[in-house]
Amino acid sequence: MILTVILLLIGFVLLVKGSDVFVDGSSSVARLLGVPSVIVGLTIVSMGTSAPEAAVSITAGFSGSNEIAISNIVGSNSFNMLVVAGLSAAIAPFAVDKVVLKRDFPVCLGIMLVSALMCIDGTVSRLDGIIMLVIFTGYMSLLVYSAAKKREAAETDEKSISLIKSILFIIVGLAAVIAGGQLVVNSARKIALMLGMSETLVGLTIVAIGTSLPELVTSVIAARKGESGIAIGNVVGSSIFNLAFVMGLSSAANPIGVVPEALIDTFIMLGVNALGFVFCLTGKKFGRREGILLCCIYLVYTGYLILR
């Protein structure tokens, strides 16, 4: 037990330091290439910080562990909005990019609605998975086109570290984030199972929280550094990546069975993200009050999962 706790603490240290380096490298690359930081947040940062979810759910999908596959994805996306966005705003309120409000957030909610409808019949089939992968490919193509179109208009006057050093920062930071996330997940899972928690509950809470820690630490640090584009882009991009790519690939490899409880959690995921979108529309930013409210909702949701 003592060794497990030590590994848990080491994992947290790797997450914090790795995310710090990762954000510096990502924001520097954005400035050097003339790409808006929100695009970097929606692509490089979101996919990088979602690597733990991808590893856990895709592996679970191939092995037939459906409960872990679906509960990790749904739990992570709810955590992203309620805690990652909520805590980031509570610590350092940030503005929301207009492009995110008009394009990316609606796309994210649309994908969540499609995924929820796919779960109603009790199975996410191979065809459903292929459809999600096609949607993901189309969305990524749109982002690449948008980045190329806006490249010349982006500001590049701000001092940045060299491109090679920036890429090195991204690689080293991401490696530390993933390693730290795995240490935290494995250690927390061991502690939870020792305490008698079920596999489904572990998937929706411990595993989902653990695999989302990279998003949490990266977005909080990005918000504190004034990189609001990376902060919100990471949250929205990670949710899109988790559903369209991770769930898509998992179900394409092996159809995922959906129990009634998981279907309820899927619609809860859609609801809390819709609430976050409303907050963005009304104030054009995430403020401290909205952030604290989202965090409180997550505590209530976690209590519901435990009692259920």
Question: What can be said about this structure in brief?
Answer:
Helices cover 84% and strands 3% of the residues. It is built from 11 helices and 4 strands, in the order H-H-H-H-E-H-E-H-H-H-H-E-H-E-H.
Q: Which tags fit this structure?
A:
single chain; 308 residues; mainly alpha; two-stranded antiparallel sheet; 11 helices
Q: What integer value in Å does the Rg equal?
A: 18 Å
Report on the biggest sheet: 2 strands, antiparallel
Helix/strand structural class: mainly alpha
Helical proportion? over 70%
Strand content: under 5%
Low-confidence stretches: 152-157
Shape annotation: globular
The side-by-side strand order for the widest beta sheet comes to 1-4
Mean pLDDT over all positions: 79
From the N-terminal CA to the C-terminal CA, the straight-line distance is 27 Å
Number of strands: 4
The number of helical elements comes to 11
The sequence of SSEs as H and E is: HHHHEHEHHHHEHEH
